[in-house]
Amino acid sequence: TFQIGVPEKGLVLLVGTSGAGKSTFARRLFGPTQVVSSDTCRAMVADDENDLAATPDAFDLLHHLVGIRLRRGLLTVVDATNVQRTARASFIKVAKDNDVLVDAVVLDVPQEIAVERTLARDDRDFGAAVIRRQHADLQRSLKKLRKEGFRKVHHLRGVDAIDAATVRTER
Ligand code: CTP
Ligand code: MG
Q: Which ligand is nearest to the CA of 18?
């Protein structure tokens, strides 16, 4: 098994394409109240889950929620794709503004697996092209991820590494 040490009262950013298994991973390793997701925030600000115009407001809510939890000293896990540098930078800023550390956990699965899993879901209506773009964004990000301000970058390569991972908090 591979044990991931995350900052006790800090922020954990999950990073991975749709279908990488972020929500499954978060559910297995963290408490339900520790995980905040872009999907949940979108559902709170839009009645139609395909309302793309709601995206800025959903992320506004997500950032606000993360900031409040970090200020209150609560370990917080962000369940969103975070494959773009600008998306990660906004969460890193929230962590810095609250004087807490932030780790990244990269769920790096083969593109075909992510596509296959996502196509099998009836609550996801986008196709392979979206995941291919996310996968390319992630691969491009990997080289520079360690210079973005994370305390640690935990890179889980492949489904087996993701399934075997455990978490402990570090002071
Ligand atoms: N899944 C699986 N085996 C795993 C992990 C996930 O079969 N080891 C399945 C899940 O049951 C789900 C799909 O793959 O049907 C996507 O997993 P999920 O954790 O929901 O992926 P996310 O990364 O959260 O995808 P999204 O960004 O679209 O929310
Ligand atoms: Mg998910």
A: 1
CA of 21 to the centre of ligand 2 (A): 7
Ligand 2 geometric centre to CA of 63 (Å): 17
The mean pLDDT of 87-91, rounded to a whole number, is 98
pLDDT value for 50: 78
User: Does the beta carbon of 81 sit less than 6 angstroms from any atom of ligand 1?
Assistant: yes
d(Cα 77, Cα 105) in Å, to the nearest integer? 10
Q: For 113, how many CA atoms within 13 A lie in the half-sphere containing its CB?
A: 12
Complex confidence, ipTM:
0.99
Distance from C-alpha of 138 to C-alpha of 135, rounded to nearest angstrom: 5
E strand spans, 2-144: 2-7, 11-15, 35-37, 76-79, 102-108
Using DSSP, state whether 153 is helix, strand or coil: strand
Amino acid letter, residue 171:
R
The chain-wide mean pLDDT, for the chain, equals: 97
